[in-house]
Amino acid sequence: MTDATLNIHTAAPRRASPALRLLRKHYTLMLGGLILLVVVVAALGAPWIATHDPQAINPIARMKAPSGEHLFGTDALGRDTFSRAVWGARVSLMTGASVALLATLLGVALGLLAGFVRWTDGPIMRVMDGLMAIPGILLAIALMALTKASLTTVIVAITVPEIPRMVRLVRALALSLRERLYVEAAHALGTPLRTILRRHVLPNILAPLLVQATFIAASAVLAEAALSFLGVGVPPQVPSWGNMISEGRNLIAIVFYPIVFPGVLLGLTVLAINLLGDGLRDALDPHVARQL
Fold it and tell me: Could you read off the pLDDT of 108-126 as tens digits, one per residue?
């Protein structure tokens, strides 16, 4: 028997990569990631994917049915619904990502401060309790009423109600970690607090933070659509899914194209983000990870 034959019979079976096994195990992670990837690609490629100017008014083409020229039909002003929906994805994704990032950064800073600097715990948490006592959408509407309508102010108005959720999560994790032996040992050795937070605390709270950030992003996408639907979000001329649904609600008895397509895209995007968050939660759970 030749050496080549021996190598064929004795070679161990090739195992799939950890990333591939992870996707096979958590199909929700793969499904949510694929849907979200399609939406992100469409948003980034809006200048090339859109077939018309999203703000171009054409009275002759008012309320046209879907066709080869207008894939999703047209609205009451003759604007191409497909092009407006593609550009609207940018507004929703920008809002979701920005709110999740800002809420996470501020929530981590305030939560760690409340968890490790004991005298700041009371004041910080009382402020957070006060913010949580006000419904998020009402607080966002109040903040928008005090400022000029723009995407930046929408992001700020949605971020403020989301901060307490992240602060409470980080504070709870910090209170648990500060009693661990390795943290107490680091304190006893005179390790600076910033070093303890960087080396021992942040790596251990990264997984729940990532999962919570995905849920905040999904909530922010819905909040932006709600504010625009109520007329207090981004300016009406800006193509966003909330504005499109608001403009088409009075025409729903005549044509459904201007309202159904952006509504479906909004639902799919929020579903994809939630599926991604659920998949990350299962994938990052140590009890599930040991079974992979």
Answer: 999 999 888 888 888 999 9
Residue count of the chain: 292
Give the amino acid at 126: R
User: Rounded to an integer, what distance in angstroms lies between the CA atom of residue 120 and that of residue 133?
Assistant: 20
In terms of Cβ atoms closer than 10 Å to its own Cβ (0-12, 13-18, 19+), residue 163 is buried
Residue 81 near residue 68 (C-beta atoms within 8 A): no
pLDDT tens digits for range 38-71: 999 999 998 898 888 888 888 888 888 888 888 8
Tell me the CATH number for domain 39-54+69-289: 1.10.3720.10
Task: Retrieve residue 128's tokens.
Answer: 């957070």
pTM for the predicted model, two decimal places: 0.85
- What SS3 string covers 101-152? HHHHHHHHHHHHHHHHCHHHHHHHHHHHHHHHCCCHHHHHHHHHHCCCCCHH
Q: pLDDT higher for 173 or 188?
A: 173
